[in-house]
From TrEMBL:
It comes from Pseudomonas alkylphenolica. Pfam families: HTH_1 (PF00126), TOBE (PF03459). One of its GO terms (molecular function) is molybdenum ion binding. This is LysR family transcriptional regulator. Residues 114-180 form the Mop domain.
Length: 254
């Protein structure tokens, strides 16, 4: 089975995150791997979540033990991706030497931009419904989950979207809203069942909430401590998360 195109491009464009797989394989712990890679604990979790979301199956298997605890190891797919990364490393020097001018690398850097969106979900276009000047794009995620995106017709045409197109759905953490089991989602909104994986308290401001979907993909959002306390939210709690289709940005391979 070949790697998804978007994950393959990620290996080429974001090597520092793929290199984290090597540290996890060696250290057996996210905390120790982050330290070895020169990353913060939080940055390491973000990297792992992004990699797992883009892959066909999780690359890293974790056992939660609280901040600073728990173990981690590479899945079989993770080991395969790591081997691919190591082969690409061997080719890197040849690629750099092949550049005709230093400006070539700068140009490639501008064309391969990163995104500030914390949540990146790999999926495929399952349907396109015209709604006036907009198109409602239905996206099939892993595990029979689905979400909708609302984009302009011009965007649909520019991205050359058709049923079956592989995409990444980008959603900023601040655009997600948590719902308690008793709250009803707003009509027309995307709504997904999720389990709280971890709460990361901040000295000031809202708490960062890491969520796991039933398909293993993860989401990150924020919630006020008072709301979390009022609903007795803790690691392992079952909640729902909602967001508007217009808040879902769509990315495709270049």
């Amino acid at each position: 089975m070949s790697l998804p195109a978007l994950l393959t491009q990620h290996i080429v464009r974001r090597p520092q995150r793929i290199a984290l797989l090597q540290h996890i394989a060696e250290q057996g712990s996210i905390t120790r791997a982050a330290k070895s890679a020169g990353m913060s604990y939080k940055a390491a979790w973000d990297a792992i979540d992004e990699l797992n979301n883009l892959a066909a199956s999780p690359l890293v298997e974790r056992s939660v033990g609280g901040r600073g605890g728990g173990g981690a190891k590479l899945s079989q797919e993770g080991q395969r991706v790591l081997r691919l990364y190591q082969r690409l490393q061997a080719l890197q020097a040849q690629i750099l030497e092949a550049a005709e001018d230093a400006s070539d690398l700068d140009l490639l850097g501008r064309l391969m931009l990163r995104t500030s969106a914390r949540n990146q979900l790999h999926g495929r276009v399952s349907a396109i419904e015209t709604q006036g000047h907009y198109d409602r794009i239905s996206l099939a995620l892993a595990g029979d989950l689905s979400i909708d995106a609302l984009i302009t017709r011009d965007s649909t045409q520019r991205l050359e979207l058709t049923p079956g197109t592989t995409v990444v759905a980008l959603i900023k953490a601040g655009w997600l809203t948590l719902l308690s089991p008793q709250e009803r989602p707003l009509a027309g909104y995307n709504c997904l069942q999720a389990k709280v994986e971890e709460l990361l308290d901040e000295p000031q401001g809202p708490t960062e909430v890491r969520l796991t979907l039933s398909n293993g993909q993860t989401l990150c959002t924020f919630a006020e401590p008072a709301w979390l306390n009022a609903h007795a939210v803790a690691a392992g709690s079952n909640l729902r998360v909602q967001f508007q289709p217009s808040y879902v940005l769509i990315g495709t391979p270049l």
